[in-house]
Amino acid sequence: MKIYNVHERQIQASPGTVGTVLDSLSGPDDRLWPWDRWPAMKFDSPLCEGVNGGHGPVTYSVSEYVPGRRVVFQFDGKGLAAGIDGHHFFEVVSGDAYPVLRHVVDAECDFRNWLKWHVIIGPLHDALLEDALDKAESELSGRPPAKPARWNTWVRFLRWMIRKRQ
Prior knowledge:
3 helices, Alpha-D-Glucose-1,6-Bisphosphate, Chain A, domain 4, alpha+beta, 32% helix, seven-stranded antiparallel sheet
């Protein structure tokens, strides 16, 4: 079964400036990943093709890295993404007036993992990605987004359950 999920935000900055936020991913001055609210993205070395890591219980490797433009992560079949075959990526693409920062998950799985995605992983993923896009927008504009993302009741419940189990 197919999992295809897209989050994107038009950012009022030049493509090169948005690219610098993408390039900071998982570094000591990460300007994209909302590590203050979610498990940090970490790799076994600085961001480049072939590094292994992930965030929390989701693990993957970097299969493609075009600085300032695109980072592709290949799921490694372990952790929370076990049984999900595919990749996810961030990219900076041209928009009408300003560039768009986009994140895509493109994967295949069996029914059990598809259901796990839709009930547990997907809602948490969606909240995390909207927080990341809020962070990127704030970093580049110097002010909070006009309409910051808000976690729905289900996401708050899932996060409460995770904390309770730790």
